[in-house]
């Protein structure tokens, strides 16, 4: 069941993927500028995790695609993401084999202007593509980065059928040679 939940200074929007939420903070502004809460454990009980690491990513060029990334068990990561400069399309891909939405994905536009955030729980792949030059993404993770558990899925995996809005993204070498989902099952 999808819907909106008002939580004080933020609206939590359920999505078609269980546990994935869009968060719209309330922005308070005047002639000096603006203020918003970006996270409150008390006001977002749907986000049941303790964040231990903050990460920041910068993409210089439009069409920079990062992902599909995830960490294998037992080092999965939940993430709370927001774009602080430019515009990105952010993707959550359900990699939970016992989920009703296994292998399904959704995308949400995050931008410095709309101030939306996306919460992705453990068991999901994550990717984003920059829609403008000069983009910046900040995100919290509830588990530490583990090189031994770091994994990726090929961005163009036909089994997932993700619409990236381009057939010619700018990719890292790692993302160019990532395996298909079928090659790494079971996770």
Description:
- Helix content is 4%, strand content 41%.
- Strands 1-2-3-11-8-13-6 form a 7-stranded antiparallel beta sheet, with no helix packed on it. A 5-stranded antiparallel beta sheet has the order 10-9-12-7-14, with no helix packed on it.
- The mean pLDDT is 93.
- It has one domain (4-29, 52-184): Jelly Rolls (Sandwich), CATH 2.60.120.
- The longest helix has 4 residues, at 173-176.
- The chain has 187 residues and is mostly beta strands.
Helices and strands in order, then pairings?
Blueprint: E1 4-6, E2 10-14, E3 21-25, E4 28-30, E5 33-35, E6 53-59, E7 65-71, E8 79-85, E9 87-94, E10 105-111, E11 117-120, E12 124-130, E13 135-141, E14 150-152, H1 173-176, H2 181-184
Antiparallel strand pairs: 1-2, 2-3, 3-11, 4-5, 6-13, 7-12, 7-14, 8-11, 8-13, 9-10, 9-12
* Spatial strand order of the main sheet: 1-2-3-11-8-13-6
CATH topology: Jelly Rolls
Low-confidence stretches: none
Order of helices and strands: EEEEEEEEEEEEEEHH
What would CATH call the homologous superfamily? Answer: Jelly Rolls
Average residue-wise pLDDT:
93
Query: What would you call the quaternary organization?
Result: single chain
Which shape, going by the Cα principal axes?
globular
What's the number of extended β-strand segments? 14
Intertermini distance:
27 Å
| Helix share, percent | under 10%
Give the biggest beta sheet.
Answer: 7 strands, antiparallel
Q: Roughly how many Å is the radius of gyration?
A: 16 Å
Structural class: mainly beta
